Amino acid sequence: MEELITDHIHGILNDVTHDVRSGRRLVALVGILGGTSIPADVSKETMSLSKLITLREMFNALMEPVSSFAKCKEFMPLDRQKVASEINFQNLFEQLDETRKQIAEYDSINYPLIISWVVSQAKSRKLLRNMR
What we know:
By secondary structure, the protein is mainly α. 72% of the residues lie in helices and 0% in strands. The chain has 5 helices and no strands. It has helices at residues 2-14, 20-34, 40-75, 89-105, 111-124. Helix 2 (20-34) packs antiparallel against helix 3. The chain starts with a helix and ends in an 8-residue tail after the last helix.
C-alpha cells in the first residue's frame, strides 16, 4: 500500500495537466492520508476538485454522441443517415453549455494547496524519504 501511495504522489508531482485521472488520484490520496483530520481549506478544495471531475466526465459523456454522429454520418450511406431532426441536438447542446458553465466555476482550484498537504502528510508518515 505504501508503494502505491508513493507512486501516486510521484505521478501527481510529475503531471502538470491536472486531468481527470490525476484529479482522482489526488482526491484518493487526500482520503487515504487524511482520514478525519483534513484541514478545512484542503477539504474545501478537495470537494471542489471532486465536483470538477464529475462535471468533466459528464461533459465528455455528453460530447460522445455528438462526436460519434459527426464521424458516422460522414461514412454512412445517404439513405441510412439519421435526419438531424431525429436527434435532439438543441437539448444536447443546452446540456453541454450548462455543464461547460459549471466547469468554469471550478477553474480556480488550489492544486498546490492540496498537493503540498498530501506531500506533507506522506512525509510525516515517512512514505517520502527522498523529497525535501
